[in-house]
Predict the 3D structure of the following.
Amino acid sequence: IRDPYNPYLYSRRSEIFLRQGNYKQAFRDADKSIQLAPDLYFLYKRRAAAQFHLREGDAALADLAKAMELDPSDFSFTWISPAVVASYPSAEVRESMLVFADNAIVGGAD
């Protein structure tokens, strides 16, 4: 990273790692970006995506809640598709993720 104090660089690299399926590194970079800019809501969504794929469902839900707290107007949770959620081993987390997605969609309909 050219500028180790730029959260956007870590965030962008985290997105690339997510697309490559390198979820541990995606989490590390998303976490670093949050340390640098804790008020940027989309960073929490990125870290939640990594956590979900790392099977850390409760942490992912907490980060999604934080993202919604920081910007309740953003409802772009496209990675929370029924197919992705169905792949999660915990029925409790699957249900919570679907409820979260439903609430985001209903909240965005206003």
